[in-house]
Amino acid sequence: MQPFGLLVVLCFSFYVVPLCLSKSVNGQDVLHNSPRYKRAPKGKKGKGKFDPQELDKPLLDENSLEEEYAERTFVYKAGKKTKPKNINKKPKKSKEANKLDRHPPRPQHDAKAPPNRMKRVFVSEEGVKWPNRTIPYEIDTTTYTNATNIKSIFSTAVDRFNEAGCLQWIPRTTETEYIRVVGNEARCASYVGHLGWSQQTLWIYESGCIYIDISLHEMLHAAGTMHEQSRAQDRNQLLSFNWAAVSSGNELNYQGYSLYNAREYDLSSVLQYGLTYGSTTYMYVNDPDLEYLTQIQQTDLSFYDKAELNAFYQCADDCNDPPVCQNGGFVKQINGVCSCECVDGLTGPDCTELDTSPECGGLVNLTVGSKDKIEMFGYQNNLTCTWLIKGPEKTKIKVEVDSLDLPTSEQDNCYHYIEIRDYLSGTEGKLICGDSGGAVFTKKNLGPTNMMVVRFDSEQYSAVTPGKGFSMTVTAEPSACSILPCKYPATCVDGATTDEYTCVCNEGYSGTNCDTVAATATVTDSFEDDFTTLMTHSSTGVDFQWSTNKYSNLNGFTKTASDGDLMATLRNNLFATAFYYTYRAKLETSAVFERANRCLRFDYAIADNNVGDAYPTTLTVRVFSDSGTSSVVFDENTGNDWTTGEVDLPAVDNMKIEFEGVYGFQHLIVDNIRVTPYLCNKGDPCGNVCQNGGICELIVDSASRCKCPLGFTGEFCQNDLCASVDCNQGICEVLSESQTQCNCSTGWFGEFCDVDPCENTTCKHGSCEGLSENQTKCNCEEGWFGELCTLHACEVVNCNQGSCEVVSETETRCNCTPGWFGEFCDVDPCANVICNQGSCEILSENHTHCICDDGWFGTSCNIDPCSNTNCNNGQCEALLETQTQCNCDEGWEGEMCDSQTLVTYKCDFETEIEETCFLVESTDDDYDFTREMGSTLTERTGPDSAYNGSYFKYAEASNHFPGDVASLESNVNFNAGTHCLSLAINMKGSHVGSLSILTKDGYETIIQQKFKGKQSKNWFLYAKELSLSTSTKIIIETVRGGSNIRNQRGDIAVDDIQLTSSPCPTTSDNNDDTSANGKGKGPVNIIKPVVDPFRQNKP
């Protein structure tokens, strides 16, 4: 996730507030609305019970959770690492919005004339933050044809966002500055941060953007963030860019910004684009095994998105006594409640406890170089195990899989798997299974290297027979490289101790940490690695920072880099802060230059527009040293084209070079900076003299020599030993300084690869393969035989409704299509069978069976039991050949659907907006009920599922104080008279408080029923007759139990609440209701109005 609007660059030089767009578009929440994609503790995707047969489909659904797991999966069989065979390469529906990305500027935000006094300090843009940590919003439903859909999805996204930290999205009431969500333009987009406008627009296009992850993406932009792939300071550690494919219209979403980030680069952030734009690859993950992280479809902010959000808005600053979160966790604060957000698998108030099955898992503490074993042999199903492996500082955790036997599907998907988090502990890890050990995983040098989370799952596919198990060796290897000692950017190789390492330097650099430039060395910077090599950003005396771009517009001329793909550009890159002409940005060197005469050369271009106006653009090159400071100013326009600047660098001690750009009316670009030995007027003795890959070596002040690679000779390596060797159908290989040989292509032979033994061999139905200079072989096509592939046994066989298969040169076999039999596939058993209202099913060659259509019976499907049944206001359903039932239309009942029923209010919470529900969240309480699907947040409290359907509502105990009240109250006027109120209640947990059913008329409140403390492990039903007037309010009130905030097992849930304008049915003491999901239901208690032990005049 990006640094939240901290001095980010924009798309056009004079435009400051670009519109940022999401990474995905098209389709609807097919995946996100799946029950298996439900919310689980901490917002993780629920694991549920999966159908094993789904994994054996020839091709997985690209939007399914099975596909997501398959992309994470690595199968080790027969000593080889493979991927599942049925992975779907099609783009996911919510990953195709890159093509809609366009960044229009913020109106009237061009650079301004400078005031008399200017503060030249480069700081983060506090102006992008929303005041009071709230973002008011409203959805313009007039821009949507289906307002219910956008309200539902965006409301879910708001809930997810508000659960992440102190920045809260709130429905707009009277606020003048707010977000307006619209859907009638083909874009998924948002401005960056708070702009101080009324109606700041956020676009969620109705025909392609209504997804939870896209909504969260745009909401983060509105909060002040930029794309993850724009993190110029560290993106090249994880990604490589195919800049050649990036067009000028799309460049803005990929250009580098100097951002401020609290946490590591997160490939799974909702702000990380997919790797492709349409069918073109724009980015590559340097470790291809981590590509799956860029394809995950999120239903929540990622762990590191939340961490960045809390850090940027300084949420923990309001905590009086903030917890100390360990093992990668962070402090989040929501509505004044401070707690630790832990990585998945860890829990507890400070993230030191393990979320694991009791039979497995544990903390593995290692010393430097020590090893330990993790073994799981003879394991059972329904396990979720967590191991936290930790070592001392300056170590890295390594996991070696010694043995492995975990079951896989026929398509090589994992049924049971080990999850290895060798990238970041807070992201989804790699899943491994199979039958071969030997895999090795080492913690990447991103974030703490001395900690790794490993998990095991046999719960997801618990119906599958377990394998033998696995064993792993874990080691805390010494890693001095974990503190990143190597510079510019060199490769670090760990040594034998925590203080030993070797830096493998890039060309031109030397020294222990590769931070020295020798007197004879040449160093360059073309900004291909942004500002992480020779030239880095200066933080002294600057107002903004340089950017890297592929394209730049110089007075109407589009320029590309003079060397490589990227160049440094001087652009107005502030989002919310006023930007002035004469603002300065600086680049500087930090390498140690040995004392020597040198020449600085660089390419630059200054546009020719507005020449002579008040605020010219200038480029100043300064050289600092112990001898003083010198400077050269470049301020003449270059005719909108590249030119080369030169500055002599005399031999001095402690030299530092600085490039200062002053923003004016003309655009300025810089590229291809190089520092070479000797003063500029001496020339470069090594200037392009060595050919064919030869390396120039300086001998004396003005002389050089070429060191030639093998196969080339001569003063300038101009002689190629292979030049005079014709290898025809082969490649010349140099064996020594005087000897070569020809390596022939397949099928060619001879000293010079000019002999084709297949030239005179004709393989009629096959291909010729040369075995030697004088020997060939015909490789026949399937079904053909003989020395020259001229024999085919099926030529004289008629298989009718089937296909002929050659078994040998003299034997064939007919493979019949389904439904056909006989030696030659000419027998159809259903040919003479009449099934009337049904279809014939073949059981064998001599047996058939009629499968009747719904409602028809008999051996020939000719009996309709409903023919003589009149269901009046309903439909007849045939149950058996002699039995029917009437299914009545809504509002009708009775055996023949001839009696009208009463209308009932019903709240089953299956949709966000329920037209028949009579209850709403109370505004006179401490917190709201939560609508949930599946289990509640805290273990050992709350139901495992809804009483009926998928959703229920509950009062969450976590993060609330004892005595806090959550209430539902009626919002309709009832008809006066007797009503029956019924509902399902779940009050499981050791810290359960109370649930009361109240009626309120005017100022009088009566407790009709009150339940205190734990009632049952399961749902139980309660019904009560109520005498209501037209002004009566019904209130369902819960009081949070426990003695302190840590007593969290006190969730109280309600479901299937009904109010009928009739008396309650007769009481049944043992009415064991097993309908509606059929598990965990207790007896129904129908209570007539009697003396209530909890009744009192006032609650």
Residue-averaged pLDDT = 86
Kindly estimate the percentage of residues that lie in beta strands according to DSSP. 25-35%
Number-wise, the strands total: 71
Percentage of residues in helical conformation:
under 10%
Topology:
Elements: E1 19-21, H1 65-72, E2 73-77, E3 80-82, E4 134-139, H2 147-162, E5 168-171, E6 179-182, E7 188-191, E8 200-204, H3 212-223, H4 235-238, E9 239-241, E10 276-277, E11 280-281, E12 283-285, H5 303-312, E13 330-334, E14 337-341, E15 346-347, E16 353-354, E17 362-365, E18 371-377, E19 384-390, E20 395-405, E21 417-420, E22 430-434, E23 440-442, E24 451-457, E25 469-478, E26 491-494, E27 501-504, E28 509-510, E29 516-517, E30 523-525, E31 535-537, E32 547-549, E33 551-554, E34 557-560, E35 567-569, E36 584-589, E37 592-593, E38 598-606, E39 618-625, E40 628-634, E41 643-649, E42 656-662, E43 668-677, E44 695-700, E45 703-707, E46 712-713, E47 719-720, E48 730-734, E49 740-744, E50 766-772, E51 775-780, E52 802-808, E53 811-816, E54 838-844, E55 847-852, E56 874-880, E57 883-888, E58 892-893, E59 899-900, E60 904-907, E61 919-921, E62 930-933, E63 951-955, E64 965-970, E65 977-986, E66 994-1001, E67 1004-1012, E68 1019-1028, E69 1033-1039, E70 1052-1060, E71 1081-1087
Parallel strand pairs: 2-22, 4-5, 4-6, 6-8, 17-19, 29-37, 68-71
Antiparallel strand pairs: 1-7, 2-3, 7-8, 9-12, 10-11, 13-14, 15-16, 18-25, 19-24, 20-23, 20-25, 21-22, 21-24, 26-27, 28-29, 30-43, 31-36, 32-35, 33-34, 35-43, 36-42, 38-41, 38-43, 39-40, 39-42, 44-45, 46-47, 48-49, 50-51, 52-53, 54-55, 56-57, 58-59, 60-70, 61-64, 62-63, 63-70, 64-69, 65-68, 65-70, ...
Helix pairs in contact: 2-3
Enzyme class: hydrolase
Disulfide bonds: 486-503, 505-514, 686-696, 708-717, 758-768, 780-789, 816-825, 866-876, 888-897
GO biological process, one term: proteolysis
